[in-house]
Design brief:
Layout lengths: L1 H17 L28 H17 L1
Length: about 60
């Protein structure tokens, strides 16, 4: 019985210390990001569909 009481007292005394100070959220400052535009006029997203369209046209033209 003494062991259980001693354990309960030890846990009770350390429980208060674990909450001392409370939680403070860390402050993270965001650094500004500058994106430089190269001014390039070509769109890489159109290259693949254009090549596929040329392939379809070539296949239809060679079929006749």
């Amino acid at each position: 019985m003494k062991k259980i009481a001693t354990l309960a007292i030890a846990l009770t005394m350390t429980a208060g210390a674990s909450f001392a100070g409370g939680y403070v959220a860390p402050v993270v400052e965001a650094t500004p990001v500058v994106v430089e535009d190269n001014g390039s006029s070509s769109n890489a997203g159109l290259i693949v569909p254009a090549l596929l369209l040329l392939g379809v046209i070539a296949a239809v033209a060679s079929d006749s």
